[in-house]
UniProtKB/TrEMBL annotation:
InterPro entries: Catalase, Catalase_AS, Catalase_clade2, Catalase_clade2_helical, Catalase_core, Catalase_haem_BS, Catalase_immune_responsive, Catalase_large_C. It catalyses: 2 H2O2 = O2 + 2 H2O. The keyword Thylakoid does not apply. Heme binds at residues 108, 147, 196, 394, 398, 405. CDD domains: GATase1_catalase. Residues 1-85 are annotated as: Disordered. This is Catalase. Gene3D superfamilies: 1.20.1370.20, 3.40.50.880, Catalase core domain (2.40.180.10).
Length: 714
């Protein structure tokens, strides 16, 4: 460095004296952030508030070190001359690289891939007869954060793998945090938490080559579930269309385990929690799912964020199935402590008790979606656990896992996990402690801190309903009612329509067809014989195996029609319609179709051969997808306008939309495009009209049933 060169910026002349009197401040007003100087607000824990924490590391207008020292340059490390080696004294270099080196935390051991949103839960006020939980009382409104996830795949795995989906909601109630940590299936693979590592090891990639990613279509999974028949019911759901949701917004949610609730008179009931989506329960087809995973691996994540940003807020009703708190904890012959069993809605109707609206995307994926920590033991007064052995094990696991994942016991101080009510837990110190606790007596009883904090005999969380525990001996055994592994698997099968059954059988054929070991395939087909003859024969035929003898282990089972996804009409808001046009399309056709789609609360996506705009001047419309960037799987329905020509891309679009039972409308002479693939103008879900508005109206009407199911029989 020459003697005239600045010690801070190579090449910049040094000032002769330190510039104390006239600091060189940037001109103009501060750019982005509001002024965050001034005293830091504190929460009752003594920690800085959530808002303040969010801004930590991003305050003021200058780039600084982590210690707040202003930085002149972050492009060049400090070197012994412009071409010389880097000096170890460059603190900025070491601090920046060191922080970067430690940016990753362990991903969740299961449910690693997730997407989340903030929202509000509004109670209908009609649940007080069964629970005193404050957030379910009249006029209660509660801030929530919901995270959806797949189970098996790693953080970077594709969204629409065939898998169970997590559906976890954190209610920041005035009585403390309540977490409803559920799935999109009402049942689980195992009856005892002790088996959880086994099912997860079996479902995860093979330990030698670490393949396949985010799949159950492999030997270890089928080895386990074929041997461990209590998994049969869940496996049926996993092979059903429920395992490939069209959107996270179109899934049901279930608490799975049975909970015990208590009202203010001290009366208890057993309940199962349900989330019912306002948009209906819809799925992709398997071929679509496979295409989506290549075309847009972030399909679900993008869909959720886009919908919220566009104001098409997803909504669910929270429902309760309420069963009497009987001594044997059975209901209509169903053991309520067995998480491989559901209670058919026909036997215990789902009573809607409030509405969840997700209306705000996270601002920072890591801080919120990644660091949120759920726990089925985060309970509020009026909601307690049962002895379901799966739930009991979960009560241990979720706290334990955060210690590794979030690096210590203070994760509830992270902004996303903080209760929105006073916290005075008497916990102290530990890694990543952010609170500055007051007082000298973090123990009870004490006199030095005036006896603070006080215990309450009033409403408290962990209600610990005094349940009698049967006089018993210690033993590793489940009750005999847990031995029935097939009757509800059959109930699920019988509840599905023909096309849903076909999809389910096809999924078995695909998944077992991916297993190398024939013994595994045979063993699973034998299990299917205990569910249904037709299912077993279809799968055996698909695999080239001989169907085993009929097995009548599940006699006298009836259907629960509520489990089928097909046969109802649903709101179409938020669905996506591809409008294919070109520079030759009459412009009013484009505007008419777009307006009709938007008016129905759906998302119009204009597709054209090339990018840019269609139409002239200020009324022109931006092309949202080109032939290079579109694929049929993104659209729920397709409208073909006049002026588009046959091309490979358009032909593939039409044939896929046709095969995937999607509604297709043509305006005017665009119907010619249907000739080549042999699509009849009167076929189900095909709408041709000279009136673009009419063609679009018919498509919207058809979308209420999700797909043109009648085409499946053609
Ligand atoms: Fe979980 N589960 N689980 N699980 N689970 C986790 O906790 C576990 C089970 C569910 O978005 C982990 O924080 C055991 C049933 C969801 O952050 C872990 C058993 C249901 C999520 C864990 C079960 C679930 C998890 C991993 C058997 C549906 C994601 C990371 C006894 C009712 C939550 C974490 C999120 C996450 C353990 C069974 C739902 C390891 C031991 C049944 C939605 O603690």
């Amino acid at each position: 460095m020459s003697s005239e060169e600045s010690p801070f910026i190579p090449g910049k002349p040094a000032s002769s004296t330190p510039d104390f009197d006239e600091p060189q401040r940037p001109q103009g007003p501060p750019e982005a952030k509001p002024d965050q100087s001034g005293p830091r607000p504190t929460t009752p824990t003594g920690a800085t508030s959530a808002d303040e924490q969010d801004a930590q590391g991003q305050q003021g207008r200058y780039h600084t070190t982590a210690q707040g020292g202003r930085l002149p340059d972050t492009n060049h490390s400090l070197k012994a001359g412009a071409r010389g080696p880097v000096l170890i004294q460059d603190h900025h270099l070491r601090e920046k690289i060191t922080h970067f080196d430690h940016e990753r935390i362990p991903e969740r051991v299961v449910h690693a891939r997730g997407a989340a949103a903030h929202g509000t839960f509004v109670s209908y006020g009609n649940a007080s007869s069964v629970t005193k939980a404050g957030f379910l009382q009249a006029e209660a409104e509660t801030e929530v954060f919901t995270r959806f996830s797949t189970v098996v795949g790693s953080r970077g795995s594709p969204d629409v793998a065939r898998d169970t989906r997590g559906f976890a909601t954190k209610f920041y109630t005035s009585e403390g945090v309540f977490d409803l940590v559920g799935n999109n299936f009402p049942v689980f693979f195992i009856q005892d938490a002790l088996k959880f590592p086994d099912i997860v090891h079996a479902a995860k990639p093979h330990p030698d080559r670490e393949i396949p990613q985010a799949q159950s279509a492999h030997d270890t999974f089928w080895d386990f579930v074929s041997l461990h028949t209590e998994a049969t019911h869940h496996t049926m759901w996993q092979m059903s269309d429920r395992a490939i949701p069209r959107s996270l917004r179109m899934m049901e949610g279930f608490g799975v385990n049975t909970f015990r609730v208590q009202n203010s008179a001290g009366e208890t009931s057993l309940v199962k929690f349900h989330w019912k989506p306002e948009n209906g329960v819809h799925s992709l087809l398997w071929e679509e799912a496979q295409l989506v995973n290549g075309f847009d691996p972030d399909f679900h994540r993008r869909d959720l964020a886009d919908a919220i940003e566009a104001g098409a807020y997803p909504r669910w009703e929270l429902g309760l199935q309420v069963m009497p708190d009987s001594e044997d904890e059975m209901f209509e012959g169903i053991d309520l402590l067995d998480p491989t069993k559901l209670v058919p809605e026909e036997l215990a109707p789902v009573r809607a008790v409030g509405r969840l609206t997700l209306d705000r995307n996270p601002e920072n994926y890591f801080a919120e979606t990644e660091q949120v920590a759920f726990h089925p033991g985060h309970l509020v007064p009026g909601i307690d656990v049962t002895n379901d052995p799966l739930l009991q094990g979960r009560l241990f696991s979720y706290l334990d896992t955060q210690l590794t994942r979030l690096g210590g016991p203070n994760f509830s101080e992270l902004p996303i996990n903080r209760p929105r009510c006073p916290v005075n837990d008497m916990f102290r110190d530990g890694m990543h402690q952010t609170a500055v606790h007051q007082g000298v007596a973090p123990y009870k009883p004490n006199s030095l801190d005036g006896g603070n904090p006080f215990s309450t005999e009033d409403e408290h969380a962990l209600i610990d309903v005094p349940q009698p525990v049967a006089e018993s001996v210690k033993e590793r055994r489940a009750s005999a009612s847990f031995d029935d592994h097939f009757s509800q698997a059959r109930l699920f099968w019988l509840s599905l329509t023909g096309i849903e059954r076909q999809h389910l059988a096809d999924a078995f054929i695909f998944e077992l067809g991916k297993c190398y070991e024939e013994t595994i395939r045979r063993r699973e087909v034998k299990n299917l014989a205990a569910i249904d003859r037709e299912l077993c024969e279809t799968v055996a035929t698909g695999l080239g195996l001989k169907a085993p003898e009929a097995d009548d282990r599940a006699p006298g089972v009836t259907a629960s029609p509520a489990l089928s996804q097909i046969g109802r009409r649903w709101p179409v808001a938020g669905r996506k319609v591809g409008i294919v046009a070109s520079a030759d399309t009459p412009f009013d056709q484009i505007t008419t179709v777009r307006a009709a789609v938007a008016e129905a609360g759906m998302v119009p996506l204009l597709v054209a051969p090339r990018g840019g705009r269609l139409g002239e001047g200020s009324t022109s419309v931006a092309v949202e997808r080109t032939y290079a960037t579109m694929r049929s799987v993104e659209f729920d329905a397709v409208v073909l306008t006049e002026g588009i020509e046959s091309s490979t891309e358009v032909d593939v679009l039409i044939s896929e939309a046709w095969r995937h039972l999607k509604a297709i409308a043509t305006c005017g002479n665009a119907e010619i495009l249907l000739e080549e693939p042999g699509i009849g103008l009167g076929d189900p879900g095909i709408f041709c009209s000279d009136e673009p508005h009419e063609a679009t109206r018919q498509v919207i009407e058809a979308l209420a049933e999700h797909r043109a199911w009648a085409r499946a029989d053609m």
